[in-house]
């Protein structure tokens, strides 16, 4: 054994520390010391086996009953922390474990040092059994020892390192932005932090470094990035963590939309390709799909392009005089093809229809099954041959296919149901290949949308985006020009992969007059905008470059690469669905003294 001065690990011939994942056949004959957790203990009568595990892997260790170390080793139980010393020996051919990198060797235990004992485990580490979420989160330190989760968190670190390297190689410089800042209306609730020095006033944790990264551009630093923490008081979803998340935040000066795309595509495509493990990442240049086209063809602005189904608008077919189906007259009708499904049993069609009624709250999904020269199904009899042929041409259908229909007086509701049906049908027909990554840019988002509940114009997406409209014409707009305003597009774009939105971005509105007008159209008084965004507006008045950027979500990137369906599986210490940290008991009450220092008095909601 090469002396290392370390009682927990020996050093190999090259000077590297020996770990539970480092020993190979070339180490046979060496005297070594390794340390780790007891992954598994197996008593085979004449032999006691201990599988010792650390961050790097697992090594099988063995001791016989007549060895002096047997008694100490025999006391060890699952998750005890041990340092084991002994000679590396080769396993016999029939006992080699090809599933382990260390599977050709084992250690003959000569000395046992117990570093720590473990109580009875509330969550077994060995194996991959499913346990309740609350148990996993309360004992997250044990959950993180489990192989799959440990691998995911290590993967996360590697992905971040790859992204950071690619950004630096692309000419970007990493800067940090403040965590304590001012509250701003960016689409979600802020987390507020009371100020001790300024009674009655609050900081906010940043929902994103949006304003700061734009100010960095105004300050003359080109091509900024950071792996930025963001904080939003939102409800949890599978693809959205409550409380906090991380994003690859980036911004560039003197760029067009195409320049941003050209900078981001090699970073994302390269990172996914590096960790794809045989999965196909598609073309290095992502296709660009206009928002309106995406809503029509895929029923949403987050299309899963692995799914070959393309929705078609067939309102015109059902508006024909020779089509007698009154239920669709005067409505937006979207057709969702189901390729090759004509041979499916009746239960397939009933199941899709039942899903639309029970889970989507729809009246149902009518359908036509195409066989030979005609069709069958509840709607087929209402379409004469000429109308049926027009339908097939519009949807790219052929005999052997079937087609479902979503209809509603409101186009957006017809699109929504059609989009969900496209996903459901694609899954049920096994049309979606899980070994693919398919990226796209969604572009040309509406600048504004109509808020029907409050009868007013709202921002549709990012309020700091540049409108795709001549400057003087935009400044001359009046809020009464509703149709013109709602028809405006912005230089806004999303990156989507496999139906998951990775980021939103935009070419920014760097003109203070245009920015004030944009907020005025959305109902903000000039004084309010000047107050809320004083820092950015003032900066723009002292010479601002055209700039733009985006911010792909780190958590979602890792979730996709890891093949997981929930962000908790790629987050080291996540909260539960109620935004609670069960391990650290947060949020928690604070002492009256702390509240007094912060000039705060709590008022609890009334019970019942």
Q: Can you give keywords for this protein?
A:
5-stranded mixed beta barrel, 608 residues, globular, alpha+beta, 18 helices, single chain, 8-stranded mixed β-sheet
Give a verbal description of the structure:
- The chain is α+β, with helices and mostly antiparallel strands and 608 residues long.
- 28% of the residues lie in helices and 22% in strands.
- The protein has 18 helices and 22 strands.
- Strands 6-9-10-22-21-20-17-11 form an eight-stranded mixed beta sheet, with helices on both faces.
- Helix 5 runs parallel beside helix 16.
- The N and C termini lie far apart (70 Å).
Can you list the strand order of the major beta sheet? 6-9-10-22-21-20-17-11
Helical stretch count? 18
Beta-sheet strand percentage? 15-25%
Over all CA atoms, what is the radius of gyration? 30 Å
Structural class: alpha+beta
The total beta strand count reads 22
Largest beta sheet, briefly? 8 strands, mixed
Residue-averaged pLDDT: 94
Q: How much helix, percentage-wise, in residues?
A: 25-40%
| End-to-end Cα distance | 70 Å
- Poorly predicted runs are none
Shape: globular
């Amino acid at each position: 054994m090469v002396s290392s001065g370390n009682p927990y690990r020996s050093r190999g011939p090259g000077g590297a520390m020996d770990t539970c994942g480092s020993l190979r056949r070339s180490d046979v004959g060496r005297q070594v010391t390794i340390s780790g957790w007891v992954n598994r203990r197996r008593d085979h009568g004449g032999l006691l086996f201990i599988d010792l595990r650390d961050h790097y892997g697992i090594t099988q260790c063995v001791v016989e009953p007549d060895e002096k170390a047997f008694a100490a080793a025999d006391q060890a139980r699952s998750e005890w922390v041990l340092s084991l010393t002994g000679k590396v020996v080769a396993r016999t051919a029939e006992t080699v474990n090809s599933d382990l990198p260390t599977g050709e060797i084992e250690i003959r235990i000569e000395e046992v040092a117990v570093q720590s004992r473990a109580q009875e485990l509330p969550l077994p580490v060995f194996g991959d059994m499913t346990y309740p979420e609350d148990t996993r989160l309360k004992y997250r330190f044990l959950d993180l020892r489990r192989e799959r989760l440990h691998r995911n968190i290590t993967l996360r670190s590697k992905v971040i390192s790859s992204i950071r390297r690619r950004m630096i190689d692309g000419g970007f410089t990493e800067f940090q932005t403040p965590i304590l800042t001012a509250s701003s209306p960016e689409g979600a609730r802020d987390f507020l932090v009371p100020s001790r020095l300024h009674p009655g006033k609050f900081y906010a944790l940043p929902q994103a470094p949006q304003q700061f990264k734009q100010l960095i551009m105004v300050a003359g630093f080109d091509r900024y990035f950071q792996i930025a923490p963001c904080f939003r008081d939102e409800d949890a979803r599978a693809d959205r963590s409550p409380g906090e998340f991380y994003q690859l935040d980036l911004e560039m000066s003197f760029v067009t939309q195409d320049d941003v795309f050209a900078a981001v595509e090699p970073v994302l495509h390269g990172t996914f390709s590096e960790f794809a493990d045989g999965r196909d990442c598609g073309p290095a240049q992502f296709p660009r799909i206009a928002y309106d086209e995406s809503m029509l063809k895929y029923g949403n602005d987050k299309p899963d392009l692995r799914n070959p189904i393309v929705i078609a608008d067939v309102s015109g077919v059902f508006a024909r005089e020779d089509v007698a189906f009154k239920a669709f007259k005067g409505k937006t009708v979207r057709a969702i093809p189901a390729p090759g499904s004509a041979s499916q049993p009746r239960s397939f069609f009933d199941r899709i229809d039942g899903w639309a009624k029970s889970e989507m709250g729809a009246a149902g999904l009518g359908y036509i099954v195409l066989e030979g020269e005609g069709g069958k199904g509840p709607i087929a009899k209402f379409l004469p041959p000429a109308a049926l042929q027009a339908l097939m041409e519009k949807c790219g259908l052929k005999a052997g296919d079937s087609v479902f229909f979503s209809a509603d007086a409101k186009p957006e509701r017809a699109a929504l149901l059609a989009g969900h049906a496209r996903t459901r049908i694609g899954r049920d027909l096994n049309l979606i290949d899980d070994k693919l990554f398919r990226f796209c840019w969604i572009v040309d988002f509406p600048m504004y949308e109509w808020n029907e509940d409050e009868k007013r114009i709202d921002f549709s997406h990012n309020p700091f985006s540049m409108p795709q409209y001549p400057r003087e014409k935009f400044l001359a707009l009046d809020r009464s020009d509703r149709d013109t305003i709602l028809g405006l597009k912005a230089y806004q774009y999303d990156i989507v992969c496999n139906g998951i939105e990775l980021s939103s971005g935009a070419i920014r509105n760097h003109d203070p007059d245009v920015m004030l007008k944009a907020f005025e159209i959305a109902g903000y008084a000039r004084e309010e905008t000047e107050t809320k965004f004083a820092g950015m507006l003032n900066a723009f008045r002292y010479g601002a470059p055209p700039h733009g950027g985006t911010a792909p979500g780190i958590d979602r990137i890792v979730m996709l690469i890891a093949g997981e369906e929930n962000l908790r599986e790629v987050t080291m210490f996540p909260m539960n669905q109620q935004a609670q940290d069960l391990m650290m008991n947060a949020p928690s009450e604070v002492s009256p003294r702390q509240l007094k220092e912060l000039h705060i008095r709590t008022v609890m909601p009334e019970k019942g």
